[in-house]
């Protein structure tokens, strides 16, 4: 069985071997990971997948089985295979923490390591963070329209494989969900497990009422009854009310902390409003109405606009498969390298497509947030991509300007704004120096992050664009390299 080291593309290994044979493999380089366009035509993305990346880098090594397999391909020389036996990640890695709101072109991960290490980890690093950030972003869109309602991830059976389901559920929590039906993910990450019943449970009994009673006898504190197996309004809800009355009587007039019904088909707006009236008349005003059935942010938004009485939502297929944007276009590019004399050589990708031209050098991302009366009040001015050596003094006036569009600028007065550096060091010399927060802490941080965005940025359709500028120094460096490349190409 292969190890995580083979979670890579063939060309990473062939390039590594080619560099190894020319003794160019240990040149220290800088690689950036970023994406070019927000998914779902959204105005932002939510970072997720860093914990997965950390685990991967800690465990990165080639097993004997890996070496044997590579030998069997006939592609790799014995000297290179011998080198791989002691291979591990020895570099530095900087990343924006999970739960952070980010935007296109920003540096999400900066890797500073020997060239062969940088190359090998590209595929796995991109795979983990692209997928998990995509699900977290989809979840956050759903949370934005759901308000204070309960959201539960229901997507395991529709996910594209084990890792997608387990880590997808974790990403949904980062995006604002409260629970999951996925027991493996719940156990691994300490997520609250949530479930009701399937239609097969109802159909296993002679009658729906008998099925409800049997469930209530065993799971009184998990009492959410699926009411649409036969006839929701004429049979399902009346039978649920009958069982609730029996439970209330045997509990001396008190109901469990959480109980209710689940709707999984039909017109959810109409049925939920009718159900609410029936439950209220019967004295069950605090009963939850839980809904599922191919939900997403658009349908939930529409149902709420129609005054539905649903307060808990189970979202599955369209969340776990990221319907509307099946992949996040994350990329990973060389930004520079150190020469033998210690000098740094900037590198960038040139292209006829302007959007594919990259920014050179060791870079960071600075976030500018408004302050009022000396206190952070949480609304984003914009982000600045700049060189690692650059700083902004918040006690001095700063002109937030895009060199590409110099007529668009904001003058920030001293003390009226806060500057936050987003990239944090995760690995130093191959050792993890970052203390992983709990999933609950990441979720709380993600909730704080979304609050910095203006409401116009949260629109599902045609959201307001967030300003992400590059510094004058970075702009000048980029322009200089573009001009030099143009001259060489003549």
Please write out the topology.
Blueprint: H1 10-21, E1 28-35, E2 45-46, H2 50-59, H3 64-72, H4 78-84, E3 92-95, E4 101-102, E5 109-114, H5 115-146, E6 150-153, H6 162-174, E7 179-180, H7 183-189, E8 192-193, H8 199-203, H9 208-218, E9 223-226, H10 232-250, E10 259-263, H11 268-281, E11 288-291, H12 297-305, E12 312-315, H13 317-320, E13 330-338, E14 344-346, E15 363-372, E16 375-387, E17 398-402, E18 405-412, E19 417-421, E20 424-428, E21 431-432, H14 439-450, E22 468-470, H15 472-488
Parallel strand pairs: 6-7, 6-12, 7-8, 9-10, 10-11, 11-12, 16-22
Antiparallel strand pairs: 1-5, 1-13, 2-4, 3-5, 3-20, 13-14, 15-16, 15-19, 17-18, 20-21
Helix pairs in contact: 1-5, 2-5, 5-6, 5-12, 6-7, 9-10, 10-11
Q: Which terms summarize this structure?
A:
single chain; 490 residues; alpha/beta; nicotinate phosphoribosyltransferase; TIM Barrel; 2 domains; seven-stranded antiparallel beta sheet; seven-stranded parallel beta sheet; 15 helices
Report on the architecture of this protein:
The chain has 490 residues and is α/β, with parallel strands linked by helices. The chain has 2 domains: 4-136 and 326-488, nicotinate phosphoribosyltransferase (Alpha-Beta Barrel); 137-320, TIM Barrel, CATH 3.20.20. Helices cover 37% and strands 22% of the residues. It contains 15 helices and 22 strands. It has a 7-stranded antiparallel beta sheet. The chain has a 7-stranded parallel beta sheet with strand order 8-7-6-12-11-10-9. A hairpin with a 2-residue loop joins strand 17 and strand 18 (405-412). Helix 5 (115-146) packs parallel to helix 12 (297-305), helix 6 crosses helix 7 and helix 10 runs parallel beside helix 11 (268-281). The longest helix has 32 residues, at 115-146. The radius of gyration is 27 Å and the shape is globular. It starts with 9 loop residues before the first helix and ends with a helix. The mean pLDDT is 94.
